[in-house]
Amino acid sequence: MVFLNQVVFGSKARPVKISVETDVSTDASNCSQLIVMVRYVKEKSVVEDFLFCASLETSMTVIEVFKLVKNFFSENDIDLQIIGSVCIYVEPSVLGNRSGFAALVKREIPTL
Q1: Model confidence pLDDT, tens digit, residues 43-53
Q2: Is CATH 3.10.590 the right assignment for the domain spanning 2-108?
Q3: Where exactly are the structural domains of the chain?
Q4: Among 20, 22, 37, 94, whose Cα sits 20 to 30 Å from the Cα of 50?
């Protein structure tokens, strides 16, 4: 938990935007998990840290992935407006500029 607090605090304390990177992995028991990384500037260096991992209860959908990310940010009192870019490593159908994950993020962060 100390590591998570450092990453969350580091992300919130930065005057610049952060980059959020998501990936979905399936383990040996066929359970899908969302992995979220964060990239930000710390002491004039770009730092990439693991932010969180969450089980995907149902089939992976854009809405489910977005809800997990949004809920994590909300639970940790991080404003979604701090996100400056999004990198997504998932199926092409999940990406979509109009109906995919990127579109949901852009609705929440119009300046993105």
Answers
A1: 888 888 888 99
A2: no
A3: 2-108
A4: 94
